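Final report, closing paragraph on structural work. Over the funding period we assembled a curated collection of sequence-structure pairs, and we close with a single example.
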Amino acid sequence: MAAEQKPESNALTTAVPVTLVLAILAGLFFTHSLPYQDERPSSRPLQSRYSAAQDMNARLWQDPFAAVDSANEDAPAQKVSITLNQQDKSLRLEAIKQPPSSTQHTRKQIYKDNSIVDGNNITILAVTLPGGPYQEAAEQRMRRRYAVLSALANQDQFPEDEQHIGYFQPESTISLPARVPFEWWTQKSDDNNKLLVLWVDESNLLRHPAAKIKELLCQASLANSPQGIVFNYAVIGPNTSTLLRDMLKEVNSDAAAVPCSSVKHDVNTSLGEISGRDIVYFSAAATASDHRLLEGIVPEPKNQTVSAYLFGRGIRLFRTTATDNEMMATLAYELAIRRVKNPDHVVILSEWDTFYGRAMPEAFRNAWHNDHSEKTVHVYGYMRGLDGKLPDQAGKTGNLADKNPDTKDKSSVDALIEFPEGQSQKDYLRRLSENILALDRHVKNNGHSKGVSAIGLLGSDVHDKLLILEALRQHFPHKLFFTTDMDAGYSHPAKWLQTRNLLVASAFDLKLHDKLQDKIPAFRDSYQTAFFLAAQMVLQGGTEIAKHIGRPPVRLFEIGRSHSVALPTVNNNKSNGPLCSWSHWADCKTVQPDIFPTLELNVTWQGMMVVVFVILVPLLVSWRVCRLIFSCLSNSYYLGGLGVMAILAYFLARSWNNYITRTNAEPFYWLEGVSAWPSQLLRISLILFAAGFFLWGRLKIRKMQKNLAAQIPEDLQHQEESLQQIFALPYKPDQLGHCDVLFIGSWEEPKLTNSHAVVHPAVLWKKYLGYCYQKKLAFSGAFLRITLHGLVFIGLGISLMLWSGFPASPIRGCTGLYWHKGILAAAVIATVMLTMWVVDNARLCERLIKYLSAKPSHWNEHARKWALQAHKVAPECVEEWLDIQLIVRLTKTMQPMIWGPMVCIGLLVLARSPAIDDWDIPWGLGLVFITMLLYAISAEVYLQRGAKLARTKAISLLNGKIRAQLNLDHPDEAVIKRIEPEIENIRNLRDGAFIPWYEWPLLRSFGGLGTLVFVLEYLAQVWGSGTL
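Its predicted structure, as stored:
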């Protein structure tokens, strides 16, 4: 009989056990860093005066200039009372005791209470720091002091007073800094080795940096020191290109001999020495190229270096950081790897108010080698401090948008847009973005389909660069952005939407090689690493180690979701030996961290254990798996296939290992958002799934067709058989016309106008089989139809994407691109062909059901007898019941097929998720995805439309039989009672295509329609942000 009525339930509120389990599992994989809780209680500082050489309260990580800037505020004036008693009379005087004058902090303050004895070896290290009052300058001072002192701690130095810092006021007429902070450090293993660190304001060194630094070092030296005390002099600086160029101009003048009046025996010595001791300079942060610095100073600057020029004039200077030209060459090479090269258009944004900002566009042009007649490098300038923040304004930017009364009637978004007045420069940035957007449109209109291919941010302030990224990402979400100088702020979770996939060329990583970084954690920016290296060079002897290390090669990074990903370059091919350390620095070939291949396929015992476990578990839990494996092992063809697959896997692994170590290889990361290989694995999984799903579906359809077409054995006609063996339909297909087989729409049945006409299911079934299996040109009709429709769909999709633009491929190198194109083409073809195959079968079923429902059916005797005897169907309802059961079997077989295309389309879309890499989906490709999805859904629409038509026909015919009985003079109530339950059963049938899609068990197990809507909303948010 008909299937029993199933109780309906609300699909919106169904329990979601599967969803809950998946949510818990997802929580194990996708975790986020949590902010640390600050539990240190605040306290009021004591108003006390500390009497020592280092007499100012300061943490070791504090800004040294800020610590000594408020020196007079630490000792406020005090009220004192004086009482005089004489001859029973007293006189009481109130007075104000002034604090000690800051003029007491002369050069003698350095050696106050500090026992300097014969045999001491004192190194005076001057570190130049930016002296500006702005936040970025204060942050740089804190960072660089932290780096230098970390280097001292790394070399077993310890501070003599870790809670205080000292300062002295130089005595000079050449505009030296008003206050010079200092601090003493001592070698842990030898108290005779002392280190005096001077923190020098760079802004006071302009024009004559060498002379001023020498004078400061002289004044910091112990006056009239005994002969047994040895002074060594080192400078970490000049640390700006402007100051380094001033030094070059200075030594080029006649003032090459400057005596040091405060140190005896120093008469008529050069700028580069004191009392015969060299002043060794380590320029750790000046990145302008030698050519740019020497331009206008020497006749042929291209043939000289800054170090050689200064050495010829008595100054020993080592440049320990990569230059702008080297970083631009690395970026140009990386852009070429990513297929951005002449004549592609590149936009450069840099600050025009600094020497650094003016030099960077020229350095990029030189590296770009723009020989094309058309101008392809477009430079835009801005002024530093785009946010408009000034010192001591507590974060105020002077933006008057919130004060403008006209904004009260505007929407909240419009009111937040900055008003074009005040200190903030954000409105200039907004117009700058519009200019670049107009340039991009202009380039596209002139025949360059990519428009602006890359955008370079070559400023010096990280906050400005982050603000520019925020402005430009809105208009260019998938353009290639690049910049210089690594900063930890780029990897901050709050900034990832702006900095994702940002290319960064940097002189250093945030740390040195592990054996050289030792116990110190990674720094905040690459300049800290440069200072960290320079300070340790000073303590290791300076000259020899600086010559050995030279200028480390440029590092290249791509900003990922959780950290920066180091990319291999042509210069990063050295590796250190096992003895590399600061005590054996001669064994170190590079100071940069190693770059390891991200995924090498090597045979390990852990991997072998996993393979064995994966093989054994199914064997232990499933007899069917055991039987299948044993049957395959006993078949020589299967064994040969396994052998071929093993050999193929071996060579693929070797090829992969060879590829992943190349400098132009695409790295492999799962969810960092910087690797295309997870997308390729998804597409390969799609191909394997589509092939397996097609074989499974084809086998299932053939089994269904075979069962429905089986004849009843003579000796079993008296027994109750399974339902699929009782319809007794023909098993030979009908012969169709040559062109009819190519189009399902050619299936037309003659219209039957006779009211007593009937349809024969056997005839319709033969034609259905004909459309499935009849061959033309050695191919089945189904294959030809699917291929034809697939080619048409692919052609239309390509035409649409030619209009909208093809999606970008964010892949490094040609090899990875070729693999991407091959895998993508195979995945697209597999998805399209599987979709066409499913829809083709659904359309055939719908055609069969349509013509089966046109008129009353006339079934064969075998089917009628089985319905009457096995299922006790009322004789009046046999034909309609058999129609419905045939449709149930057809649609129940076809309905699971719809999931195949849905899964494939989902994998195609997921493979282009920004959570994996910087994939984009142009509107043309999005329309192709939507069309393909709707076409796949149409298969279910075809099935449900046919089921609805069959249900309507069966109920109508059965109601007609009831009306015929009622029209008789003596209606047979027994017949009516037999027909009415069948009508109700057919009306309430929930099987095959007779069940609505939102009541499918698979959807109900995930919580029904409500959960589906929630998941779709969440996925939309994920897609928009590129985060999980």
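The chain has five domains: 1-22+999-1028, 103-319, 324-390+397-587, 605-657, 677-710+725-940. Residues 1-16, 712-724 have pLDDT under 50 and may be disordered. We thank the funder for supporting this effort.
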